[in-house]
User: Which sequence fits this backbone?
């Protein structure tokens, strides 16, 4: 499969919309600080949503966008890859102006041919404040990037989408970059052209409902009128807009961050009502034709609704596009949804924001005899091989993995074992017999209790057939509860160079991106044939997040040298292999199920790599370079090295580096 990757001309893409919870318009307002230093920075709280645009993409001589979806009325777009022609179309306005604007930007800045984009599904409403325009712009930028291997990272794609949308009559801001962060609230700061972000922790589960008002809204008119108030306020009306999008908005965002983190949903709902009242008082007069929004305000004032919600406000640029509600609970949300759809004929959908880290479950496949460590494995399972941990205790390797998982916030762990192997694990997690227990000192008795408690977090799944690594992982599909899950290899141990262990680092990186994630580490060219190798573009300045564009299982040195070397800021020609840790999304298990059902094997087995590559093509996938190293227990020579090195002071600890964060 990988050998033909460079010839692949077709791919599938999905780009989500996004919801601005609070702080609309402050993104473009904050950009005016480049001209007027008295304009305060903008702040907003934004979350990605589950709805978006799905498309297939292939190379073409021309630039074509088409769809059979009823929303497009069989309309399509076609143009030569000519900047002047594309710009003319972009300036005419309409949905296809956005794709033309991005194509013109790409054509001006890169050497590319054409594209044919077929939109296959779109559950994201147009002109509703959920950024359908930005979603299609990002989709076009990503399509050119992946088809022509332009080596743009996510910020580069967002920049191309932003520049393309700026060529249309729309005057968009920078909120749309938040779609890269998944379904998690993100605090964004807009200071001139600089955008800083910080993910927000939640103190409880928040239940949002978003409804399309099914009314008219002229976003171009709204943005045009409000932009007239900048960069300098020349009258009282414009001064009030500056105040509302500046100091007033900053105060609201500060309180909203606190309410989200404290889990105070009633206070956050009241703050939404306050933010809407402030918008109506100070901002709406600058564009009364659109921002009086009679449909929006009739819903906000509907007495039948207030018993189900803590608060409500408009979305995006506001106007009669979309309304958002913070509901009291899941049942109240269901009742509100039925009311809006059945009584008001307003299509609605849910957004649930949950507290804590999103990865609470982990999988470790440990089935198998361990032939390469025979005859030791005749007496002890491979994952029970002893190591001296950094606390000085001699432990079975599996115990080290389990302790690190708990330290990383994992609550439930699934071990994939053979049918006859559970008694060995039961023995490990069972309390020592009294005759042995009384010989232990207090410290070791306390540790014995910890081992027993660890056992209570374990679920066992049997792999009755040895049909490959992907098949072993698929046995845990019920255990995952359709949630993201951490996967570790049972014959590896990991040592971190920073305060957070490697599993915790990977989970944090996943929560930043919201995409299937593979831990990676640097390997030499001589070793590439022994690993799965990732290729892609670095997505952050620290070169720890790699936006993958290819996964190749055990490539030849020649293929790796030509197609898999990655350029770094500090040096060229590095290779990055699978580290032995993954965060798998439900999409991975869907691909595994499809491959198993259809008998799709590689080298006679169901491979996890195949499913990962399929997910990468459809939804995107990231590699993450943790600040740490992995140790292999699977061979006599690597086990000897692990015994000698593991648990000692790290050999080379890189200084932790963090990305820019929003200040609030």
Assistant:
């Amino acid at each position: 499969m990988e050998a033909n990757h460079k010839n692949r001309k077709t791919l599938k893409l999905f780009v989500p919309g996004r919801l601005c919870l609070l702080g609309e318009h402050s993104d473009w307002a904050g950009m005016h600080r480049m001209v007027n230093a008295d304009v305060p920075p903008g702040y907003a709280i934004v979350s990605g949503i589950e709805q978006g645009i799905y498309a297939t993409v292939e190379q073409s001589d021309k630039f074509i966008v088409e769809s059979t979806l009823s929303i497009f009325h069989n309309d399509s777009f076609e143009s030569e890859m000519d900047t002047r022609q594309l710009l003319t179309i972009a300036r005419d306005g309409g949905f296809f102006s956005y794709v033309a604007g991005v194509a013109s930007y790409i054509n001006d800045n890169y050497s590319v041919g054409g594209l044919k984009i077929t939109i296959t599904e779109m559950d994201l409403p147009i002109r509703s404040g959920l950024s359908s325009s930005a979603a299609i712009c990002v989709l076009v930028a990503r399509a050119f990037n992946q088809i022509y291997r332009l080596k743009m990272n996510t910020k580069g794609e967002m920049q191309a989408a932003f520049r393309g949308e700026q060529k249309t009559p729309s005057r968009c801001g920078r909120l749309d970059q938040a779609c890269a962060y998944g379904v998690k609230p993100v605090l964004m700061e807009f200071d001139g052209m600089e955008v800083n972000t910080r993910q927000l922790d939640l103190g409880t589960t928040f239940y949002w409902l978003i409804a399309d008002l099914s009314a008219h809204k002229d976003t171009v008119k709204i943005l045009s009128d409000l932009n007239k108030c900048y960069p300098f306020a020349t009258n009282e009306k414009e001064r009030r807009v500056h105040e509302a999008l500046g100091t007033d908005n900053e105060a609201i965002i500060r309180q909203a961050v606190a309410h989200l983190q404290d889990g105070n949903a009633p206070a956050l709902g009241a703050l939404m009502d306050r933010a809407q009242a402030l918008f109506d008082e100070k901002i709406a007069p600058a564009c009364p034709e659109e921002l009086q929004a009679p449909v929006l305000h009739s819903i906000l004032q509907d007495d039948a609704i207030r018993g189900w919600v803590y608060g409500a406000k408009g979305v995006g640029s506001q106007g009669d596009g979309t309304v958002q509600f913070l509901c009291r609970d899941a049942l109240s949300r269901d009742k509100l949804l039925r009311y809006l759809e059945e009584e008001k004929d307003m299509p609605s959908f849910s957004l649930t924001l949950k507290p804590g880290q999103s990865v609470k479950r982990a999988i470790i496949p440990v089935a198998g005899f361990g032939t390469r460590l025979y005859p030791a494995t005749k007496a002890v399972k491979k994952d029970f091989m002893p190591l001296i941990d950094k606390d000085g205790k001699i432990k079975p390797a599996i115990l080290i993995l389990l302790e690190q998982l708990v330290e990383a916030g994992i609550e439930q762990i699934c071990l994939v074992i053979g049918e006859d192997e559970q008694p060995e694990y039961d023995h490990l997690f069972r309390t020592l017999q009294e005759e042995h227990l009384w010989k232990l000192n207090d410290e070791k008795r306390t540790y014995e209790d910890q081992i027993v408690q660890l056992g209570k977090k374990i679920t066992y799944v049997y792999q009755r057939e040895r049909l490959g690594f992907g098949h072993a992982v698929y046995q845990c599909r019920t255990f995952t509860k359709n949630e993201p899950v951490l996967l570790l290899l049972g014959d590896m141990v990991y040592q971190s160079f920073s305060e957070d262990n490697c599993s915790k680092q990977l989970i944090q990186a996943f929560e930043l991106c919201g995409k299937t994630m593979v831990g990676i580490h640097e390997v030499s060219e001589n070793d590439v044939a022994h690993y799965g190798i990732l290729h892609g573009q670095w997505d952050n300045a620290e070169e720890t997040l790699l936006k993958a564009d290819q996964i190749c299982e055990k490539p030849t040195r020649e293929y790796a040298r030509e197609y898999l070397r990655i350029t770094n800021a500090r040096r060229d020609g590095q290779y990055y292999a699978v580290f032995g840790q993954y965060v798998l999304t439900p999409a991975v298990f869907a691909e595994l199920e499809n491959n198993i059902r259809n008998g799709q094997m590689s080298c006679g087995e169901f491979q996890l790599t195949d499913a990962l590559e399929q997910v990468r093509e459809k939804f995107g996938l990231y590699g993450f370079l943790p600040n740490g190293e992995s140790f292999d227990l699977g061979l006599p020579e690597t086990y000897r090295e692990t015994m000698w090195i593991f648990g000692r002071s790290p050999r080379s600890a890189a200084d932790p580096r963090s990305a820019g964060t929003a200040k609030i």
Notes: The two ends are 47 Å apart (CA to CA).
